[in-house]
Amino acid sequence: MPASFPVTRIHPLALAISMALVSLQSVAQTQPKEMSEVQVLGTAEEELKQAPGVSVITQEDLEKRPPANDLSELIRTMPGVNLTGNSSSGQYGNNRQIDLRGMGPENTLILIDGIPVSSRNSTRMGRSGERNTRGDSNWVPAEAIERIEVLRGPAAARYGSGAAGGVVNIITKPPTDTYAGSVTVYSLFPEHSAEGGSKRLGFNLSGPLADKLSFRLFGNIAKTEADSLALNQQFATGITPPAGREGVRNRDINALVRWALTEKQSIDFNVGMSRQGNIYAGDRAVSTDGTPEATQLAQAGAETNTLYRRTASVTHRGDWGAGHRSRLTFSYEGTDNTRFNEGLAGGPEGSIQAALQKSTSELNNYLVNGEYSMPSQLFGTSQVVTFGFDHRTEKLNDPYGNSQNDNTGQLVNAASRNGKAEASLTGLFAEDNIALTDKLTLTPGLRFDHHDNFGSNWSPSLNTSYQLTNEITLKGGIARAFKAPNLYQSNPNYLYFTMGQGCPVNYTNQGLGCYILGNADLNPETSINKEIGIAYTSRGWVSGLTYFHNYYNNKIAADMFDQGPPIVIGVPGSAAQAFQWFNAGKAIVQGLEGTLTVPLIGEQGNVLKLINNGTYMIENEQKSTGQPLSMIPRYTVNSTLDWTVNDKVSAQVYATFYGKQKARTLGQAGGAATGLALSDRGSYSLVGLSAGYKFSKSLSLRAGINNLFDKRLFRQNNSSGAGANTYNEPGRSLYVTMTASF
What is the band of 563 on the pLDDT scale with cuts at 50, 70, 90? Predict the structure, then answer.
């Protein structure tokens, strides 16, 4: 670990003793006056949500700029957020997911009401680090959401494995004291017939069931059409053009019952069921044409993969008085992922096999976590201490993913293999929110995690906030974060095979291609995340500038050219090369985030205001290869002119400006990229507008135009042959949405 991270020099035992002393001191407090003074201080979690790298999308934001289907469409407009694949290969360029500060989607932890969501982990990971998945940002309809919290950098480290880039916490609407409900319809109409439109219908109901029982129920039916197979025809290098955006069908139902045991204690019972089926657009990982059968499926708009997700949770929340609060959650998440088998070998690698057989991977996750917060007075300072724990168990059964053999028995024993893999992770954490003075707040924390396959991990953190004046605040933080290897990377029975361009050029291809084998001896990925920022708030003016720096180490990769001499299996003349998933060298991610809100008309801009945020990436590079971690723009600027005409009418004009996106300079086989593979994607901008009208308290209408000036971008290949031109940007479209409520 770098010596530049001073927090890691704090001895864990010393910090644990300090936390224990705080706890004992809290118990010893008996003066009501002192305790009442402590209660004005929030918990460490509440304080961290005021950090520079935190953004909140409100219910009003969702109403004024509703996403067509996937929440990532709106989340991408926050500072530090882009949509990318999990590598810079561009293999599944249109299946982009939420990438926070350039750390890749697999380092973005998605939560729903604070509970981790990991259905994407049921999808097999290719050697580039990509999964053929939409991610986990499409399980909750927009109308069921109260707010979305986006935590980047050190503030996210408290959430454990998988949060090295950040956390997206989707908070659903709670039950209400009186009966209330709404129905929303939404339609999006693209101007170009080759691009897919969207339709959805959702409802929300809530209210009392009995004296101490209340409920909340939401449901959703949605469909986004796939792009036509001919959309990228001009860039076809074979029979089949590069794939456009696949479509998706959603069916969601979720019910929550809240039992108010007392005025200060409650239990939530939550169950949900979702179905997501794709509408195939012809995507394949590396093949130029795929299989003829796959092309026919794309032409027919067939459903080639289906996810069924089941959830259940029980949560107890308690307010024990004098600032003492607790939460305890038990939850279950199960995913059945059924899809047409994709080729595991060269040729149609990553493309649907000609036999059109299906297989199902089953993923079950079990979680118990909780925390207890209490105020304290220690050495004359007000503090709120939080102790917490969580235990996760993940079980995967993917028989097809482990069906690739090496034909020699040297790498895997076919007789003893099965598709089952399992891992458990237990975490303990303590954090303290300390008001050192009326202007200076310090928030230290320490998290300990033990993985049953990969040992122990300590994650210390330190965040601070100093109020320079009533309007200006200086904030900073530093934290260590980590991510355990996933169940494909760490499974020695998981074998991946590739031929042709997939084999490294610095070794002699001996005729039978290359294998990638799971590795049970991997180390977890780690990162040291730092940020420092300054914020100004006064009379509707809001501005801020934050510098962030992530030192990323032990990234798990399968870049064969970066490993060393391979194992050679078989006999001379008909042999193959065998590699493993391994821990690559360090990477550096650093950049700037800024915000600026300008009030133009009305008190603090409540009539007309200009809202801006921007991100500038200084560096995003894997040091051992010189390649980018993910394909993100040099800069991103989001601007919104928000006009509240009166209580009935509102309007917005919004624009996003993207900087140049650089292509990889190395091919997937390790040699220098040439030709179109070196093509950068130039800077571009997208402009839209929307307007809404409230006919009454119970009926509202909104309409808008996306991509007003019809700036279209096209995908130019299915893999690294496209350079940075790996995804489509759809053209102009019109949307209309209406909500009726009571």
Answer: confident
Distance CA 227, CA 632 (A): 23
DSSP code at position 674:
-
Q: Is residue 190 part of a domain?
A: yes
In this structure, how many other beta carbons lie within 10 angstroms of the beta carbon of residue 736?
13
Ranking 310-324, 411-425, 504-518, 678-692 by mean pLDDT, the lowest is 504-518
Asked whether residue 308 is assigned to any structural domain, the reply reads yes
CA distance 644 to 601: 10
In degrees and rounded to multiples of 5, residue 494 shows phi and psi of -90, 120
Count other C-beta atoms under 10 Å from residue 674's C-beta. Answer: 9
Cα(595)–Cα(367) distance, integer angstroms: 36
Domain membership of residue 1 (yes or no) is no
Q: What's the rounded Cα separation, in Å, for the pair 226 and 279?
A: 6
pLDDT at 351: 83
Would you report the helix, strand and coil content of the chain in percent, each value rounded to 5? 10, 50, 40
Provide the token pair at 462: 């330190």
At 235 the three-state DSSP class reads helix
User: How confident is residue 733, by pLDDT bands cut at 50, 70 and 90?
Assistant: very high
Residue 238: other Cβ atoms inside 10 A: 9
Query: What is the rounded distance in angstroms from the CA atom of residue 498 to the CA atom of residue 719?
Result: 14
Which residues lie below 8 Å from residue 61, measured CB to CB, with a gap of 6+? 74
Q: Are 728 and 715 in contact (CB under 8 A)?
A: yes
Q: Mapped to the 3 state alphabet, what secondary structure does 17-56 carry? A: HHHHHHHHHHHHCCCHHHHHHHCCCCCHHHHHCCCCCEEE
Structure tokens at 595: 């915000």
Is the pLDDT reported for residue 34 higher than 50?
Answer: no
First-residue to last-residue Cα distance in the chain: 57
Question: CA-based Rg of the chain, rounded to a whole angstrom?
Answer: 26
Contact 244, 276 (CB under 8 A): no
**Residue 653 main-chain phi, psi, to 5 deg:** -120, 125
Specify the 3-state DSSP secondary structure of 721. Answer: helix
Binned at pLDDT 50, 70 and 90, residue 402 comes out as: confident
* Rounded Cα distance, 149 and 191, in Å: 33
Other beta carbons within 10 angstroms of residue 513's beta carbon come to 18
Dist. CA 200–CA 417, nearest whole Å: 43
Q: What is the CATH number of the domain that holds 333?
A: 2.40.170.20
Q: How many structural domains compose the chain?
A: 1
- Those residues whose C-beta lies under 8 Å from the C-beta of residue 210, and which sit 6 or more positions away, are none
Structure letter (DSSP) for residue 124:
P
Instruction: Assign residue 207 a region (left: φ > 0; alpha: ψ between -120 and 50; beta: otherwise).
Output: left
Q: Is there a contact between 47 and 433 (Cβ–Cβ < 8 Å)?
A: yes
Range of the structural domain that residue 95 is part of: 6-741
**Beta strands 180-190 and 567-571, pairing class:** unpaired
